Amino acid sequence: MEAHELHVLMVSLPYQGHINPMLRLANLLITSGIHVTMATTEVARHRLSSRNITSTTGNPNPPENPNQELLEFEFFADGLNADEDRDKNLGVLLEEYLPTKGAGNLSDLISDFGKKGRGFSCMIVNCFVPWAVDVAAAHGIPCAMLWVQACALYAIYYRYHKGMGEFPSLDDASNSVELPGLPLLKVQDLPTFLLPSGPPHFKNVVAACIHSLDKIRWVLGSSFHKLEEDVVKSMSHLKPIHPIGPLVPPILLGKLDRISGAGDFWDSEDSCIEWLSTQRPSSVLYISLGSISVLSESETKAVAAALETTKAAFLWVVKKREDGWGRRSGELPEGFLERTKDRGRVVRWCPQDRVLMSGAVGCFLTHCGWNSTLETVAAGVPVIAFPDWTDQPTNAKLLVDVFGMGVRMRRGMDGRLSEEEVERCIFEVTEGPMAMAMKKKAVEWKEAAMKASACGGSSDLVTANFIGEISAINKI
Ligand code: UDP
Fold this sequence. Notes:
Keywords: Glycosyltransferase, Transferase. Its EC number is 2.4.1.-. The protein has 2 domains: 3-262 and 454-475, 3-Layer(aba) Sandwich (Rossmann fold), CATH 3.40.50.2000; 271-449, Rossmann fold (3-Layer(aba) Sandwich), CATH 3.40.50.2000. Helix content is 39%, strand content 13%. The chain has helices spanning 16-31, 45-49, 90-115, 131-138, 151-161, 200-212, 229-234, 271-276, 297-310, 336-339, 352-356, 370-379, 392-402, 419-430, 435-453, 458-475; strands at residues 7-11, 35-41, 71-76, 122-126, 143-147, 176-177, 185-186, 218-221, 242-243, 284-288, 313-317, 344-347, 361-366, 383-385, 406-408. It is an alpha/beta fold. The chain contains 16 helices and 15 strands. The chain binds uridine-5'-diphosphate. Uridine-5'-diphosphate binds next to helix 1 and helix 12.
C-alpha cells in the first residue's frame, strides 16, 4: 500500500503535553502523505475547536493550509458526566471510566469509520492510554505506542514493573538505584509516580502500559538516538524503543510545520516575540512551568525578588487558574510589573518554540516537562531545572548531569525556595565559571538534534522504516 493510502489513528489523553508530541509525529507522517486522525476525549473539544483545525465532527474553521486536510480530530466521551470535575475524579477516570466506557466509545468511533469505508492501517496510542491497545487488537489494527517521555523513563518503568531492576525501598530518600545505561539515580531522581507518596492511579496506569507492551508491534520514543544512546541500547534485547524525535515543533529543526497550531489549547501572546527582538542576544531569562505546574505563592515571591535584585531581563509565563488544570499560581508582588516593565514581560501563554529560538533567550527556568526539555535541547538553550512531579525530577537529572546543559534549583531544608537560590542559579548559568561549558553543550545537543532529524539521520530512518512496515503489513 502506498503512503497516501494509509490512514493512522492516534489516541491520546487530552493534555497539552501529551497531544503536542503526538501531533509532531503526525506532522512527520503527513509529510509522507499519510492521513492522520487524532482522537482524544470530549473535554479537549471546546479548547481545540475554537482554533483553526479540521474535524469531521464539526469543522468550525476550514483550514488555510491544505496539508491540514490530512489531519482531522475526533472526540470520544470518557464516560464521566460532562459537568463532573475531572481533576478531583482523576483516579476513577483513569482506572475505571476510560478503560471501560472510554474504550467502548473509541471502539464505536472506529466501527463508524469502518462503516464509511474508512478503515485504519495502524493505531498509534499514547503511553497513558494502555486500554486503547486492546481496542486496536479487537479491531485487528496493528498498534504502535508513542512513549511521550524520555527513553530513560521507559527503561526505569519497564525494569520496575517487570521486577527486573534492583530497586531499593523507595521510602528512604537516601537510597539509590543503578540501572543499565543510566547514571546512579537517587530516590529523589526517580519519577514521582513510583514513589510511595505518589497517587496510586498514575503508577497503575504506567504499570498497565508496561504490561500492554507484549501486544504492541512498535514502541516509538519522543527522543533521538544520540541523546539517550546508552539507555536505548540497554532496552534493545528487552522491548526495544525506537527514538523518532525529537518531537518538537518542526521550526526548531528548520522544518516545515504542516499543521501549525492545530493542537494548541490556548492563544499565545505573540507580542512577546517582537519584544524579544529588541533584547540583546542571550540576555533574557525565560520562565515557564508548562501547562499544568505552577509556582506557589512563596516560590513566585522568591523568583520575583531575584529578578529585581539581579536586574535580569525576563519573559515569564504566569498562567491564569482557568488556563491550567485547577492549580493556582502565586500572585506577583505588588508593583512588580511596574518596577520591571523596562526589562521584563509577563504573559499567560507564549509560542515557546519561537521564544526559545529567538536568540534573545540565554536561559530557560523550566519545570523539565519532557516536551520543554526536548525543545530547549533543540534550541540549544541552557536551563535552570526546577522539576515538580511525574518524570520531571528524572529529566532534571538528565539535563544537568547527563546532557550537561544546566543547573538544578533546589528548595532548602525547610522545603522552601529562597531568593538566594534563584540568584545563585541565574549567576551559574549566565556568568558563573561553568556557564560557557553549559552553553557549549547545549549548542552541541542542538546540532545533534538537527542531524538526527535531517534526511538520513537516525530519527529520519526510524520514520522511514516505520512507514515502510505499516505499508507492508497493509499490503498483506
Ligand atoms: N508551552 C507553550 N507555551 C507556553 C508554555 C508551554 O507553547 O507558554 C508548550 C511547550 O512548548 C510544550 C508544552 O507546552 O510543548 C508543555 O509540555 P511539557 O511536556 O514541557 O510540560 P507539561 O505541560 O506536560 O507539564
